Amino acid sequence: MSRRPSNSVKDRLSRWDMNKRRLRRFVRPGAWILFAVLVLSLGTAIVRSADPGGTALSFRERLGGATGFAGLRITEVVIQGRANTPEPLLRAALGVNKGDPILGFSVEQARKRIEELSWVEQATVERRLPNTVVVFLQERRPFAVWQNQGKFVLIDRAGQVVDNQDVAHFRHLPLVVGAGAPNGAAALLDTIQERPALAGRIVAAVRVAERRWNLRMKNNADVMLPEGHEAAALDRLLQLHQTQAILDRPLSAIDLRFADKLVVRPRADAKPDGKSDSKPGATSAGAPSTTSAGAPSTTAAGAPAVPVSSKKPI
Fold it and tell me: N or C: which end of the chain has fewer CB within 10 A?
């Protein structure tokens, strides 16, 4: 293959190519001059935006107003990660609307306001020039329903109140009851979920004196757990049910607070054959208590005085 000589006519620049090269030489310095003019105009607009009396607006407001005239205004607000946070509350906390100057607000202050919303665990606010604001949300996950003084609210794993409205939409969540119940609820509920044979029989976990737990069962019996040894007590309860069907007996209380003995309280309507005339869910007490072996025992004490609703909020 023969090569074309380097000084061929085809290798010479055309008039159009030569003009483009000359144009580039003028465009580059011209761009810098245009940028300088814009900066100077921006500074002039900021200075003129001060009040005649000498009280100047904040720098952010002046900057936003000046850049707004240059077309840097919000045309789109993108929200990502929102599932339960009410959108009107979120937009009010953000504090900007379409048409506002995009440089006229603080993304840090907007983030702090958004994180004050009960559903929001963490938020990020980004300003994407020339006209877009993006909000990223990490919402708290409802973990349980907390009943206290007749009111129902949602809490997360950390025990923080998430919301006190539309609780009925979360009826599938576990129910914890009483003052201080959010503290330590996650550890107890995790321990219960590890024992599904018991979890399906529990209506609520009731906090007693803000230090230990009682479990309200579906047959309205109260299982009294020792402080700090809930897992061992639940294993003991599961073994007693497997060997003696203790959770199927007509009992109003099962006291597991003592490692060396078991104290139970039969329901007042319990018959000698172990059956009861009352319907499931009816509460009665006062009959002499017996141990699992049938020997007389002291009456179990400490059943929760907090009324527990067997039904989730509707």
Answer: N
Where are the chain's structural domains? 76-139, 144-266
For 107-229, strand residue ranges (E) read 120-128, 132-139, 144-148, 151-155, 161-163, 175-177, 202-208, 212-217, 222-224
User: Could you report the per-residue pLDDT of 258-299, keeping only the tens digit for each?
Assistant: 989 999 999 887 666 555 554 444 333 344 354 544 333 434
Q: Does domain 76-139 have CATH number 3.30.450.40?
A: no
DSSP annotation of 163? E
- The pLDDT tens digits for 124-138 are 999 998 899 999 999
182 burial via Cβ count (<10 Å: 0-12, 13-18, 19+): buried
pTM summary value: 0.63
Equal CATH topology for 76-139 and 144-266:
no
DSSP 3-state of 12: coil
| Cα–Cα distance for residue pair 5/159, rounded to 1 Å | 83
What's the full length of the chain, in residues?
A: 314
Fold (topology level) of 144-266? Rossmann fold (3.40.50)
For the record, the structure tokens of 5 come out as 């000589």
